Amino acid sequence: MAEVFTKNMARNMYYGGGLFFFLLFLGLTVDTELSAPERDNRGAITPQVALGKKLWEENNCIGCHSLLGEGAYYAPELGNVYERFGNSTIAIKAYIRGRPKEGIPGRRSMPQFDFSEEELDALAEFLRYANGIDTANWPPNIQG
């Protein structure tokens, strides 16, 4: 290491490192673009799923729940709730419908939104759709 670190050496490292990481970024982008269609289930979006997503947003469900890791962690992750409830939209609808009006004193609890049957069906279908997205094993456990 008797050699002196020169400006030329620093410049070569700077440009060489920049080129290396640019090519790495480009390669990862191409890999993502090629693998995304295999992981996507966009063909499964129905008007009912779209209505469920709209209800999810209008009622600020993400203010308490997370969905596929995005959102608040006040209440359970809902990306795999369909699987947790035994692959049953009926169970999801019954759970949402069964929330008490006032909540449970001293505990966090989900409010009663008084959804119609059509809205409950849409929310359950939206959660079933979200469960079908290939998330590379997220959440890491069944509890969310």
In short:
The chain is mainly α and 144 residues long. The protein has 5 helices and 2 strands. The relative contact order is 0.15.
Biggest sheet, strands in spatial order? 1-2
Q: What would CATH call the homologous superfamily of the largest domain? A: Cytochrome c-like domain
CATH fold description of the largest domain: Cytochrome Bc1 Complex, Chain D, domain 2
Helix content: 40-55%
User: What oligomeric assembly is this protein in?
Assistant: single chain
The major sheet is characterized as: 2 strands, antiparallel
Strand elements, count:
2
Annotated CATH architecture of the largest domain: Orthogonal Bundle
CATH class of the largest domain: Mainly Alpha
Mean pLDDT value: 88
Element order, helices and strands?
HHEEHHH
Q: Features of this protein?
A:
144 residues, mainly alpha, Cytochrome Bc1 Complex, Chain D, domain 2, two-stranded antiparallel sheet, 5 helices, 2 strands
Written overview of the protein:
With 144 residues, the protein is mainly α. Strand 1 and strand 2 (70-71) form a beta hairpin. It has a two-stranded antiparallel ribbon with strand order 1-2. The chain has 5 helices and 2 strands, in the order ααββααα. The protein folds into 2 domains: 1-39; 42-144, Orthogonal Bundle (Cytochrome Bc1 Complex, Chain D, domain 2), CATH 1.10.760.10. It starts with 6 loop residues before the first helix and ends in a 13-residue tail after the last helix. Helix 2 (47-58) packs across helix 5 (117-131) and helix 4 (89-97) packs across helix 5 (117-131).
